[in-house]
Structures are given as C-alpha cells and as structure tokens.
Amino acid sequence: MTMIRPRLSSKTVAFAALIALIALMAAATFVEHYRGTPTALNCFYHAPWFIALWVLTLTAGWATVFKARLPRPSLLLHLALGFILIGAGVSFFTSESGQMHLRTGETADYYSAAEHQGDSVQLPFQVSLKKFDVAFHAGTESPAQFTALLEIAQNGDETVQKTVAMNHVCDYGGVRFFLTSYDSDHGGVLLSVRSDAWGTGISYAGYALLFFAFAWLLVCKKGGFRRILSSRVWREGKTTLCCGLMLLLSIPAQATPTTVSRETAQKFGTLLVNYEGRICPMQTLARDFTAKLYGDVCYDGLTAEQVILGWTFWPEEWNQEPLIKVKGQSLRKEYGLNKNAAFTDFFMGGYRLGPLVAGYYNQGDRSSLAKEAVEIDDKLQLIYSLRHGRRFKIFPVSLREGAHTKTNISWVCPTDTLNDFKLTPHDSAFISAFFGELYQAATTGQEAFMLKKLDEMAIFQQSHGGATLPPDHVVKAERLYNAFDLPVWLSRLHLCLGLLLCLALLKTTRRFPGFRQVAYIVMAISWLALSGYIVLRSIVSGHLPVGNGYETTLSIAWCAMLLTLLLGLPRRNGTLSRRLLLPFGFLVSGFFLLVASMGLMNPQITPLIPVLASPWLSVHVSLVMLAYMCLTFTCLCSLMAFCSLIFGRISETELMRLSQLARLFLYPALACLAAGIFTGAVWAGESWGRYWGWDPKETWALITLLVYALPLHEASMPAFRRPRFFLAYLLLAFTTVLMTYIGVNYYLTGLHSYAG
After folding, report:
1. Number of domains composing the chain
2. Tell me: the pLDDT tens digits for 575-588?
C-alpha cells in the first residue's frame, strides 16, 4: 500500500510561520523585561533561527500571493511588506553603527562599534567639535534643544562645518551623525554614528508602498471596505434608541482645618513659580500637591491653594488631618491604617515605614508592601520639601557676571543661597522676609496685610522675571484650564449614558426615539467642551497634546467623540449595527477619559524633552491613536454581539451586520496603524539613528498589526467568515491593543515606558 504524505502548501507554511513569529515576539518582550535587552537580542531578535523564520514567512507568503493572483491593491500591499523585511535584512547585515565621544576642540577619525564592544571603525575623514550650546526653557534648567557645531576634514582638503542637534541629523560621506547626549559641564557630546547605504531606503520605500496600498484598498470599488460601505449595513438608518442621564454629584462637608480665606488663597495662586521645568501659576503647583496627597484637587471644601497654605502656616494642625490617601491594602492591613491617613499616623515611635523604604532601595525588596511604603514615602517627602520652602521657587533673580549658570535669570526659593545673584539690599531684604511676614500675618488673622504682600510679590516677579515670564494669555489659559476637572466629569457622564443606551438597546429597539436626539446633542456639547479643554492645554504647553500618556488618551477620546458625531446622526429607523454607534461612542470616549482621570496617567504639563520636539511625533501619535480608537470600536461590536446572544435579543442577520460593522472599522484601523508605525520609524531614524530597534513598544505595535491583519485573509482562512468566530477573535485580539498602549507603558521597560 502506498502511503500518501500530505503536502504542506505555501499558504499553510506562511500563516503558520507568521503565527509563530507573533507568539515568539510577544515572549521576547517578557524575556527582555526579566533577563535584559542583550538576552532578548541574542536569544530572539538577532538569532539565526529567528531571522530564518522571517525569511520563511516572506518566501512562503510571496509564493502564495503570486499563485493566488490577488487584486492589485492586495498584491501591492504584500509586496510592500516584503520590501520592508528585505530592507530590514539589508540594514542588519550591511549597516554599521556605534558611538563617538568628542570634547570641545578634540578631533577623531574613528568611532566605537556597537556590534562588537571595544572595536573601532575607521572613518574616511576627521571630525572635531568646534562649539556646543544648550538652550533651556525660560527661567528653568530643562533643556529645550542642544546643538553641536562639527568641523569635518577629508584628505587635507578644505574643511566643512556641519550642525547636528536632536532631530537634526548631520550627513557627510555616507555617514550619519546623531546628537545623543552631552557632558554635564557642556564641554563634550556623545554622537551616534550610523552608515546604512541601502537598507533604510529599501525599508522606507516599502513603508511608502504599504501606505499607498492601504489607501488604494480603502477606495477600490472591489475591495472589502467599499463592499461593506455599499451594503445594507451602511445604507440603512442610523443611531440608537434610548438615553438616560445619570451624574453623581457629591456635596463636600464643611472644612475643619485652619487655613486662609478663599480670596487670599486665590490671590496666592496667581503668583508664578518655577515648577516641573517651566514657569506657571502657583495654582498649578497647589493642585498637583493636593492631588498627589489626597487623590483630588480639593479637600473638605477647601481649594488646593488653601490646602497648600494650610500645610505651610499651620503644620501641626494639618499633621492630624487624614489627607494622605493610602491605596495599598497590604500597607493598610500591616499598620492598621484607614484609606485616608494623617501625617502623624506614620510617626508613632519613629518612622514606621523606614525599614520597608530602606529595604526597597538598599536590599532590592520589591514586594507589594515595600512598593506601597515607597509610594507613601514619596508623599511624605513632598510635605517635607514644602515645609522647608523648597517647593516655592517664586523669586526671579539675575546672575552676577561670570557666574556659571544655564540661564541669565533663575527662579529660586527662599532657602537658596543668593551669593551668585545681582540683588540690591532692598531685594535681598524682601526675599528674606517675605514668607516670615506672610506667616505672621496668616497666624494673626491679618489677611489684608497678606493681600498687600502678595501684590508686592506679583510686582517683584513682573519687574525681575524678564524674558522668563510666560505671556499673559498663557497664564490666563492655564488658570482657566485648572478651573475645570473636565475629564473626570465627562467620563462619568459618558459611561453612564453608554451603559444605559446599551441596556435599553438589549431590551427593545422601538422606544424613546426622542432620547436619541438628546444623547446626540449631549455628545456634541461634550466634544466642544473637550476640544476647548485640549486647546487650553496646547496653549499652556506650547505643543499639540501628544507628549505623554495623559494627552494621547485625551486625544483618543476626542477622536472617538468626533467619529460618533460624524457617523451617528440620529434618524428614525436603523439597523442594530448603526444604532450601536452612539452608545459605543459614549463608552469608548468615557473609558479613555476615565483612564486619563485616574492615577494611572500623569496630567502634569511639562516641557517637551528635545527628542519629542519633532514634527513626526504629532503625526505618529495621531495616526496610532486613530487606529486604537477604531480597534476599540471593533471590540465593542464583539461585546455587544455576545451580550445580545446571552439575552437572546439578536438575530443571525443582526449578528452578521455587527460583524460587518466591526470589519468596516478594521480597514481604516490597520491603515492608520501601519502609517503610524512608519512615521514612528522615521521619527526614530531622525532622532537616534535607527528606525527599528525591537523596543517593546515597537514590537507590540507590530504584533497588533499582524494579529488584526489575519481576519482580512478570510479567503484563505474560512473561519473568519463566520460571525461568531470573527467577533470572538476581535474580542481576544483587543488584548494586544491593551498590552501595546498600557502594558508596555506601565509594565515593560523600554524607550516608550512611562512607568518611571
């Protein structure tokens, strides 16, 4: 009997290899977290078997594509992916990179290779550092940009001068120089050096083809996206059915601790202070101080300015106030603490947290109890720094000529040494006596005198601050921004409305038609309010809201609300899939606003570090946020489908329409994610010399793209044609989005980590 051996098709090999790569890349990010980057590179990313697996995926995939005779957009898309991989391979095997350290006036014609530690690579020219300069944000020591002037000479010919700065590359003779960092005395720089003749160009061409292919796929009449748009899913009616409004308001109790009046505290909040690397109203520092201690910007009916002045002038009384929020359950159980503890609760017979804090920093104790103790210790240190005056950098003073400094004007606190500053006897006396006079007036009830001293302080700042003072419209914008804790209230409103709309949708589809219009109007008003909030933040920060996790989360919510308004205009009738747009919009925006308002995100406005001051950043983050927002909609489609199945409120036809609606969002999501990865690669290439470095964020973004790309291959993988399987897959696939956006940022280490 002849044994028949099954033959593996190129399609089977391609998909099997791709799925294996997804699993291996995910595993590699955790290996890097626990074992370090060198282990991950040696055992996974740079290992011969890993490279061979990519080659197998490419060859099997291209063989399948050419056999299948795909439509031109799909064919171009797969060719583009191949070019990206080929370019990456060329870069890996042919490029050279390393670092060069130069001091001012020093010349070098080699750099230290990154691939082989200790080896040197000879350059065909000589490089010397002629000048280095750092520009700081006004009145602070936060660098805004650093620039080096290089002089390059080749074979004794005339020299050329080239400027290199962060996000400004120096190209010469096929070699690229990137300014990575500088010496603390500003006398030297560290340059990254890279030579890649072909690889980067091939990969960039592949990325460009990929973006073009996705755009072609979206507009092609025979493409899946246009087919869904022309189907009944998109032609029949719009929006949802019922609406409810639930907003929980809390009435604060009367304040008990002693502090100044609200009027005096408000005047104090208008003063300027050097805080978090920028000059801003004291109100901002007070809000952050109160929020870090208590978890809210108000306490017992007192404003943040009243809280910070209470701690400053009546410390013994405020020591007894249960103002310090203790999040950790282990710590509360160990020491018998309530959720809100007083300062004195931690000092009974000595500093109770001392052994745990010492164990964390000295013995490497990373238990939950030690981490919770360190979190509280940070809050206690914040109170100590306030009491010693180190938080109040409110005095702008000019430096003496010849004094070593980074700016001509510095903002100092009352405890700083003033020997290096140009001060008249009157100014010195004013600075020395200011807080003492405020304390005397506050504790004796002379608030009229306090208001007078605060007015004098404002005049002092305006007369001495010079160019470090922020424009008046920026200060007014920040005070208006601080006046509303908009994400908190909008998140509660949107989540309540979204849940009520979904529950009503499960119960019936033909009641409360008027509430649909009301819900739509509420969404429009919320979008306008959030738009104003984001505009104010942009004015204050001086950049688009894409600099940190808090800002990008707000951007996702804003995009979700805008998309809901554009696609969810209410009409009398509509399929279930169309009626889901409005509740889904409320849930998506509410969820991201909730995440933004929680302690997981840091809402502080800080100057952008130089590497983030790139035009590619805004494009990169915007595209990725749009992709995540669309993928969140696909997840909600799946959730709604399975909830409806549980309650028996959905037909097979409606289930099919839900799956089509999810697929409709899937196409633009993948297009935006691919474009976002490309712009991120360009940004990385222009900033630190490599467009791909297997950073966990990059790796998980690639994993997300590949995981969500699989359902588009329904012709090759028939299981994705079944609505239940397709929706269940999307539900599980959303875990990659959560891992990319939250898990990497706050758990895994890497260039994109916000955990520190």
Report:
1. 3
2. 555 667 788 788 88
